[in-house]
Structures are given as C-alpha cells and as structure tokens.
Amino acid sequence: MRxxxxxxxxxxxxxxxxxxxxxxxxxxxxxxxxATVEVEPRSSWPSLIVSxxxxxxxxxxxxxxxxxxxxxxxxxxxxxxxxxQGYSLAPFKARIGGSLPPGAGLGSSAxxxxxxxxxxxxxxxxxxGPEGLMEASxxxxxxxxxNPSGVDPAIAAYGGFLLxxxxxxxxxxxxxxxxxxxxxxxxSGIPRRTGDVVSFVLERAEATRPxxxxxxxxxxxxxxxxxxxxxxxxxxxxxxxxxxxxxxxxGLGASSEALERLVHRARGAGALGAKLTGAGWGxxxxxxAPEGLALRVCSSLEEAGARWARxxxxxxxxxxxxx
Length: 323
Ligand code: PMV
Description:
Blueprint: E1 4-15, E2 26-41, E3 47-51, E4 56-60, E5 66-68, H1 73-84, E6 92-98, H2 108-123, H3 130-144, H4 151-158, E7 161-164, E8 171-173, E9 181-187, H5 194-207, H6 211-232, H7 235-251, H8 257-268, E10 273-277, E11 284-290, H9 294-303, E12 308-312, E13 320-322
Parallel strand pairs: 3-6
Antiparallel strand pairs: 1-2, 1-13, 2-6, 2-7, 3-4, 4-5, 7-8, 9-11, 9-12, 10-11
The protein binds (3R)-3-hydroxy-3-methyl-5-(phosphonooxy)pentanoic acid (PMV).
(3R)-3-hydroxy-3-methyl-5-(phosphonooxy)pentanoic acid (PMV) binds at residues 17-18, 20-21, 105, 107, 148-149, 151-152, 194, 198, 278-279, 283.
C-alpha cells in the first residue's frame, strides 16, 4: 500500500504577533524544526490519527466526528475543508511526528495541518500548492483558536521570510540575518492556549482605545523598520526593534514573569534584543545573538528556567513531500 510523508516548518514571529490579529503587519520566518505527517490508506472507517509529540490518538468516523484526544480535532477541520474542495474522503491512518515541539508557540498546529493536507492530497493524486495548503491549515487553526490571523498557516505553507497582513496574500521577502548573528529560541515550557491570550490582549486594546490604536500603528512601523534593518544588515537596530516590540506586547498583557526573566537573561548574556514570540504568557522567546555568544545565551536561558534553548536556522523551505 502507498504511504505518503510530508513535512512543514515551524516558525518564529520576528515582530508583529497579536498586532497582526487587528490588521497590522507581521514579519515571520520559518525555522529548521519541522512537523512530519505520514498518511496511508486504511481499508475501512474509522480513520486513525496518532501524534507522537502530543502522546495523543483519536479515531475519526465517516462523518468526521473525532473520538479520542480533542487536540486532534483540527485534522477533521482540515479534511472538511479538503472535502469542500472536491477531494474524496477515504479512510486513512495518519502518524504525526517530527522535531517541532507542540505548545511552544512555534506554530506546530499550523505546520501539522499543512503537512497533513499535503500528504493526504498527494496520496489522492492531486497535491495542493502553497495557497491551498495555507487555506487548509487555516481551517484547522480556526478550531485551535477562534480568531487566527493566518500568519502561522502562511509560513507553514510557504516557508522563507514573509511579510504578512491579514486578508492579503503573504509577501515573500528575500532576507537573511545579518552576517555573524543567529536567532536563539528558548521554550519556557509553560503551556497556554493561544486563544486565551489573544482574547485578553484584544480586551486590553479595546479598554485603552484610542491610545492603543497608536500602539498598533507603532507595531506596524516596527515591522517595516525591521525589514529595513535586515536589508541593511544592521543587527544592533534589529535587536533594539525587537526589544521595543516586546515592550509593546508586555504593555498589552502578553508577557509573564517567566518570559520577562528569559528576555532579560538573554539580553544580559549578550543578546542584542529579545522578545516573546507567538502568543505569549508561556511558549517561547527569541533572542538575536552574536554567533560567538549563542551558546552562552542558550545556557543562561536554560539556567533561568527554559526547558530548552537553541539557535535556529531561519527561512527554510515550506511544506514539502518527503521521500
Ligand atoms: O499560536 P502562536 O503562539 O504561534 O501565536 C500566533 C500569533 C498570534 O498573533 C498571537 C495569533 C494570530 O492568530 O496571529
């Protein structure tokens, strides 16, 4: 029997998370941690889904009802979207794995959705392109939280560096980090639900209008400035912009004591800038570090309570079929 494997990258939002929910731009890059999904046909319903990373499994009946771990419900939503595009629903077994940890704010749910959609549609002889993969993954993200901007599905599908504005086609940018610098990711290990943080920040923004409108405009400006800093290879300016973006996010309530500790520790160990990435409260932070100090920054972050910290490669390939 045929079996198809696909993978999609995780991501770090370099700048613009939360603000992107209300129409500001975000700058996002794929990272070299990938979710993989292997799909093979099954002779009868139910379909079976197993996630190694979550330690979860579920059965899916012909009506796309999920029995088992509810964290696998986005897969049903992806399938429903595919059915709406004319793909036939046939029973399968899907195994979700890879190196991208779930729940770390690194876009794992969107990457799994895109990789699953690619593997399933390839198995059925008509693999989706990036635009379709983004839409399929977005259908899954709507289950994870009610109001996704779409930035995570976009980067999982396209990879690279993207300038993203809600409701517009993502813009691919040919960027790289300034020579001699790396981005370090540190996972706080603290779980949180993206939807809860998104609602909290939106309430804060609403309660502080019209002043907060200026904050959203400033966040959008920071994204434009970061793109310019990257083009100019100006690491010091990029780091300062990241610090400023973190301050705005913290001001709207997306940070936490643990994340503040990590961000400050990274800066103290020599990072030029550091900020939360993704929704906040828990999940991960990123830091821009000189290559020569990256290991020191990582060990400081682990001493300060991070579950793990490591430099990541940015701008890797989007969703793809694996041999
Ligand atoms: O799910 P996370 O932690 O990668 O956060 C996504 C980024 C947000 O801007 C907070 C939400 C969104 O939909 O854009």
